[in-house]
Amino acid sequence: MAKAYLEVSEVESLEKATSNLRDRLFIRLLFRLGCRVSEALAYVSNAALAQPIASEWVDIYQYLLTKAMGEKVPEEMRKESLDDYRMHLLKELKEWIYRQRVKAREERRRAERARARAEAEAKASEQLGLGL
Description:
Blueprint lengths: L7 H10 L3 H12 L4 H5 L4 H5 L4 H15 L14 H46 L3
Helix pairs in contact: 1-2, 5-6
């Protein structure tokens, strides 16, 4: 039967084989936190996995991870604070996410109103056609 875990030395070998900080962070998340891949991916976006990300964003991920997971994050991965520039990037990201949510909500409402209007017009046409 194949073993369901990696030894510390095997994980260290994986970390050494990575070519960038993002991949090293991902391996550490999986191993040191004992989390599933789906949980780790909650902290590292699909876009970040598609290409290397700048060190500023790695710092932001580590900061957010520390905020979300607290003491569960290994000490060498914790990021308790961000400098002004990185905090500004995070603020811009949050604002962008908020704008996207508002836009999606407005589009849903617009579609619902259009659907209700179309249904009302269809019902009115049906009633007129029946002589009601």
